[in-house]
Amino acid sequence: MDFKNDTLDALLKELSSLDVIELSDIPNIDLYMDQITTFFDDKLGPWKLDKEDKVLTKTMINNYTKADVLFPPVKKKYSKEHIILLILIYHLKQVLSINEIHTLLSPIVKKNMSKTSDTHKNLHSLYEAFIKIQKEEMQGFEERFSDKMKNLFDSFDGEEKDRYALLFMIIMHLVISSSIQKNFAQKLIRQFPDILA
Predict the structure, then answer these.
(1) Mean pLDDT across the stretch 69-86?
(2) How far from each other are the two terminal CA atoms of the chain, in whole angstroms?
């Protein structure tokens, strides 16, 4: 198997085929905990690295509520706004600590506990913006990664390709890039406590 063309292209296509959860995909009716975990397994299952992993568990949801990153359910039911926050938490926890997520989402959680329709509209607008960013970043990643890998593979022309060295450099590129972005996101959270209060 050609390391460059087959494997990397297949992984990129798999990444670019991951679905985003559109606002219209989220039920407009309140759901019980089991329905929430089923919804997440269905919608975010392809994002898992291992099939036996759970996207979201009852324990996780309860812990998010205890940590005040999610407002409590009403009569054991979760609204569309709960689901939006859980989707955001799912993506945020890949990079940020629970304390950083709490700081970032605190204004949203506080406003949603007031239960005004304007607050829900604002959360829906933020979510729509998140979806747009997610789509753009997924597409942009594929383009940027392909260009960087072409340059990396071209730099090996004339030499016998060392598959380990290539894989190591690809992984280090991804790790350093994500580390820089994670660090910058964390600094932004710490830099603007007044906005996040």
Answers:
(1) 94
(2) 53
